[in-house]
Amino acid sequence: MNAVFPGSFDPITSGHMDVLTRASRIFDHVTLTVMHNARKTGRHLFTLEERVAVLQEATAHFSNVSVDSFGGLLVDYMRQQQKGIIIRGLRAVSDYEYELQIAHLNRQIGEVETVFIMAATRWSFVSSTMVKEIASYGGDVSEMVPRASASALRRKFAEVYAEREVEQGR
């Protein structure tokens, strides 16, 4: 059985990777799909192309994971790809409440099922938003994101990291 793990992945975190790793053991193939929302243009740190490239690098070691992107309704993507399972990671009860509504809507309009996978406790506090905030001040996010994301964040905030290293005498 094949599944789709959709998200903005701006950037992918260790929590996402945890959910993906476990999903890759359950499903024959998992497509990590960067969903592009035209209404959110300019609200992402990384371009769609950058996010896809980071995901490809971060998931290169998986034999049953591929990376794709799509703009539009997830259920339309699922129909086009002939896939019926959506994977969603959950960190907390607040995630569940939101994701439950989306899962019900997706089943209603697209006849697709959602499988929830709880992120490991050690990643329950990590979000892409918080990782970007820490990185924007030159903070160490290497434990919170895969190497590909850490490198991309260092490139994006190169001046801040350089200033921080000078301040710390490196």
From TrEMBL:
Per its UniProt record, what Pfam families does this chain match?
CTP_transf_like
Could you say which residues are annotated as the site Transition state stabilizer? Answer: H16
Query: Which coarse location class applies to the principal site listed for this UniProt protein?
Result: cytoplasm
User: What cofactor is needed?
Assistant: Mg(2+)
Pathway, per UniProt? Cofactor biosynthesis; coenzyme A biosynthesis; CoA from (R)-pantothenate: step 4/5
Write out the catalysed reaction. (R)-4'-phosphopantetheine + ATP + H(+) = 3'-dephospho-CoA + diphosphate
- Where, in this chain's numbering, is ATP bound? S8, F9, H16, G89, L90, R91, E99, W123, S124, F125, V126, S127, S128, T129
Tell me one GO biological process term. coenzyme A biosynthetic process
User: Which Gene Ontology terms of cellular component type are present?
Assistant: cytoplasm
Q: Where in the cell is it found?
A: Cytoplasm
Q: What's in the keyword line of the UniProt record?
A: ATP-binding, Coenzyme A biosynthesis, Cytoplasm, Magnesium, Nucleotide-binding, Nucleotidyltransferase, Transferase
**Enzyme class, first EC level, given as a word:** transferase
The Gene Ontology terms for molecular function here are: ATP binding; pantetheine-phosphate adenylyltransferase activity
Function text: Reversibly transfers an adenylyl group from ATP to 4'-phosphopantetheine, yielding dephospho-CoA (dPCoA) and pyrophosphate.
Q: Which HAMAP family match?
A: PPAT_bact
Q: Which PANTHER family match?
A: PHOSPHOPANTETHEINE ADENYLYLTRANSFERASE
Q: What protein family does this chain belong to? A: Belongs to the bacterial CoaD family.
Protein's name in the database: Phosphopantetheine adenylyltransferase
Instruction: Name its species.
Output: Deinococcus hopiensis KR-140
